[in-house]
Structures are given as structure tokens and as C-alpha cells.
Specification:
The chain is of the alpha/beta class. It has three helices and 39 strands. It is flat.
Length: 346
């Protein structure tokens, strides 16, 4: 499929600088450009690539100023990053999609499968499972008994969704993720630990995306919740009885301990850890590797362990690097004080 600069500019509501009939049939990063490709420029660090790019069309922020001509046709938009995302979504939606149930899949006779679904080879669909219209269940995915999926879900290979879970519409779960495994519940006794049965479920609301090898544990009682619009990266751990608020996003290797409530529109960098039974307010932004031992009020940007404002954190880190020198200076001062005390005694 080919699109012209004029067609693209109308779709993304941009303005053209150059040949409106320039056409493209693929995407390329601006630093790996080629003729017939569309690229984008939103980060000023990459501006120098635009002068040598071979891409036919480049989406560029309105605010970017160029100091010399470029050979590519430019489409200026408010946000090149948002515009390229829209184009990629359009491109993805136009790809042909498989439908039907593969002869090597197992689908229980009591399962209810919606219209225009795809179920790949060696997928397992258990008893009383409900799958909405337009869902894609890829090979080797497992959906256990009594689970319900809404419409247009995309369940990638080797995903396991345990029994009784509830999945909303437009949910994407990437390979290797496990939804609804037992929460980590054990009671110590004189001989070891008694397992506490986890009889709850996981509820995932609409428009959630979950990365590869992420785990969302079922609750002890009631439900663990991922509210609408939540986005989880790869290798994230969401423990039992947690409640993750709307449109919250978490980078790789975040761990949220049990019975924690996270507000809406939060952003957690990689390897953030949240202690159990905490309450995190709305719009809390946590820098990578922050360790949160307790509750936090909303509308804060924090980093570190325990978390603090970024300015304080970086000042503290600067002092921390000087601690060995400070320690030596304190030791030297202590020796001088002791010497002065001895002289005073004499």
C-alpha cells in the first residue's frame, strides 16, 4: 500500500513542506532511512539526521527549526510522536487478520465463542469460557474454565489465564504472561507454612495492555483489579488484592506487593518496588529503582529509597559520593581534637 504526503497530512492534520505527491510504502527510523519510507523527528537530539535522511517523507514537530534545506518532504504537526503513533495504528489495522478455529485447537463444547474470532493451533479453551467478537487467541494460549473475555482481545502465544478471571474489551496480553495464578499467601506454623487458598479472581477492564512474562495474581478473596487503560511493561509483578488505577503505566520489572491501591494516571519507572498495604495517590510519578515503603499522596514526582523530590535526591547522591572523603576528614578532626585535649591536660 502506498500513501502520498497529501493523504498523510490530511489524516494527521499537518501542513506540507515540499512535494505533496511524494509517496511512501513503509516506515523507517530517521537514522536508518531509505527511499519510499516515512520517518519522524520529535527528539531534538536526532535533528542532524534530517539533513542526510533518505526517507521520502518526515513527520516533524511544528516547533523544530531547521537551519538549512532538506531533501525530504516534511509534514509539520503539533506532535510527530503522536502522529506516527496514529499512522502505525492505521497500518496495523489494515493488516489481514486470521479468523476461524484451527483444527488442532481444543475448544470445550460448553465454551461460547463470538463472531470473527481466531483460535490458533494448540490453544486451550476451557469449560464455560466466554470469548467476545473479534478476539484473537494465538497458538498455545490457555484460557481456563469460566473465564470471560470481552470483544477484540488479543491473547498472544503461551499466555495463561486461570479460571474465573474477567477480561474486558480491547485487552492485549503478550506472550508468557500469567493472569490469575495464586497470590503469595502462606501462614507460618511450627513446622513450616500453611498455604492460604486464593479463592478470588483477577478483573482486567477495557483497553489494558500487558507486556510479556508479566504476572497478575488472583486475590485471596474478591478480586485483583487492573482498571481501564492500564499499561504494564514486560516482567511486571502485580500481587494479590492490588487495585491499579485507570491509565496508570509501569515500566519493566516493577513489583507491587499485595493489597496495595495505586491511583489513576501514575507512572512508575523500571524496577520500582511498592510495599504491601500501601496507598498511592493519583498522578504519582516514580523514577527508576525507587523503593516505596509506605503510602504516598497524589500529584508528586519522586525518586529514590525512600522516595524524595528529584532535586533533593540528586543533591543527596552528590553528597553520598563524597562520603568516603568526609569520613576521612572526620577521623582526622577527631584525632586533632584528642591531641588538643591531651595538650590541655598538660
Amino acid at each position: 500500500m502506498e500513501f502520498t504526503a497529501k493523504q498523510i497530512s490530511e489524516f494527521v492534520q499537518g501542513s506540507i513542506e515540499g512535494n505533496e505527491n511524494a509517496s511512501v510504502n513503509t516506515f523507517a527510523k530517521i537514522e536508518e532511512s531509505k527511499p519510499g519510507a516515512i520517518s519522524f523527528l520529535s527528539n531534538p537530539k536526532y535533528t542532524h539526521f534530517i539533513y542526510e535522511t533518505k526517507s521520502s517523507i518526515v513527520l516533524i514537530d511544528e516547533s523544530v527549526k531547521l537551519d538549512r534545506p532538506v531533501s525530504a518532504t516534511l509534514i509539520r504537526v503539533k506532535s510527530a510522536y503522536e502522529a506516527i503513533a496514529k499512522l502505525l495504528q492505521l497500518y496495523e489495522s489494515m493488516k489481514p487478520k486470521k479468523t476461524g478455529i484451527d483444527s488442532l485447537a481444543f475448544v470445550s463444547s460448553t465454551a461460547n465463542i463470538g463472531k470473527d474470532c481466531y483460535i490458533g493451533a494448540f490453544a486451550y479453551i476451557g469449560d464455560n469460557v466466554e470469548i467476545g467478537d473479534g478476539c484473537r487467541i494465538h497458538p498455545h494460549a490457555t484460557i481456563e474454565d469460566n473465564t470471560k473475555l470481552g470483544c477484540n482481545c488479543n491473547i498472544y502465544p503461551n499466555v495463561t489465564i486461570y479460571h474465573n478471571c474477567r477480561i474486558g474489551n480491547n485487552v492485549t496480553i503478550h506472550s508468557g504472561s500469567v493472569i490469575g495464578a495464586d497470590g503469595f499467601g502462606f501462614a507460618p506454623n511450627t513446622e513450616g507454612y500453611d498455604k492460604i487458598p486464593q479463592i478470588g479472581i483477577v478483573t482486567i477492564e477495557d483497553n489494558v495492555e500487558i507486556g510479556a512474562n508479566t504476572c497478575v495474581d488472583r486475590s485471596t478473596m474478591g478480586s485483583t483489579y487492573l482498571r481501564k487503560g492500564v499499561k504494564l511493561d514486560n516482567l511486571v509483578q502485580i500481587a494479590h488484592n492490588t487495585d491499579i488505577g485507570e491509565n496508570t503505566v509501569m515500566s519493566a520489572q516493577v513489583g507491587v506487593a499485595g493489597s496495595t491501591k495505586v491511583g489513576a494516571w501514575c507512572m512508575f519507572g523500571g524496577q520500582v518496588g511498592i510495599a504491601g498495604h500501601s496507598s498511592i495517590g493519583d498522578k504519582v510519578f516514580l523514577g527508576a529503582q525507587s523503593g516505596v515503603p509506605g503510602s504516598l499522596k497524589g500529584n508528586q514526582t519522586l525518586i529514590g529509597t525512600p522516595p524524595m523530590e528529584p532535586k533533593q535526591y540528586f543533591k543527596s547522591q552528590a553528597i553520598f559520593r563524597k562520603l568516603p572523603d568526609l569520613y576521612r576528614q572526620i577521623n582526622a578532626l577527631q584525632k586533632e581534637v584528642e591531641q588538643l585535649k591531651e595538650l590541655h591536660k598538660q
